Amino acid sequence: MSSDRTEKATPKRRADARRKGQVARSSDLNGAVVLLAALGALTAFGPAIVGGLGEAMKGMLGDAARPSDVSAGGLGPLLSGAGLAIVAATAPVALACLVAGVGANLAQVGFRPSPAGLKPDPKRLNPIQGAKNLFGTNALVETVKSSGKVAIVGAIAAMALLPNLTDLAALVGIQPPALAKEIVSGVAGIAWKAGLAYLLIAAGDVIWQRRRLEKQLRMAKDEVKREQKEESLSPELRASLRRRQSEMSRGRMMAAVLGADVVVANPTHFAVALRYDGTRPAPVVVAKGQDLIALEIRRVAEANGVPVVENPPLARSLFDAVELEAEIPEHLYRAIAELLAFVYRTARRSAPIASAA
To answer: Residue 207 burial by CB count (10 A; 0-12/13-18/19+): exposed, middle or buried?
Structure first.
């Protein structure tokens, strides 16, 4: 239970979590840094960007004024030239955002790729866990943060605009270049203030994400003692213990195959043994394996009269989605029911009656 997890995470626990991609990372910090980088790049390269885009527009309008040249060469060169000019003009801003985004990520978690974090996890499709994430504490904090960001940006914009309404009214009638300069200056000031406020919110989010991760990684005292005991053993002895534990676990799993109702198999790669005795609402996976273990499950089942049914898609779905001693998910109820009905009909025995509980 979570109340029993009172101890701080050990270095091994932290390393294991990191390998699985479980790190404290704030998306708000990335967003704030990228926003400030974009503003800085626009401030530094704004005139050059405007000039480059202006030259591209002049070139396009000049070509449009000579329809015969455009029709002779086609629209391809015209569009490609305009596209290259736009890319060249905006490249400094895009590059600044890219560097800022990568730098913010590296500053938070370092450069340690985690392939395990990219593997698909069927548990993430669990609707109950999804509801907890949607209505849990983290969702409440995200809602408060989003509301706070909107409120702060709105307040900053109002504080910047309201005192200068008379000055804005005085801009009526001035030349377009001067008007554009005043508007750009005002917008840039508001954007910088909003960006710095966003950075402060992001700093608070970094603290929250780290505290949340620390809470998730907390360990029970028994877990700490067990880990310390394992760490005190020699590598050879630890390997021997893991090997023995694996052999014992495999032995228990093979013994469970004897009481299974059916083994669902992919001819050579996967095998999953199911049992349905009526004491639980749905059939339970009592054994599963891949490659050599799958062949062993099939051998034990065939030697003891347990039906083996080859159904590659169903075997793969069960192997990926269901853990040992877990009930099958609802979306597989119909397929498993049809399979068990076939097995019971073939074996000429009646299905167990589910418990009313």
So the answer is: exposed
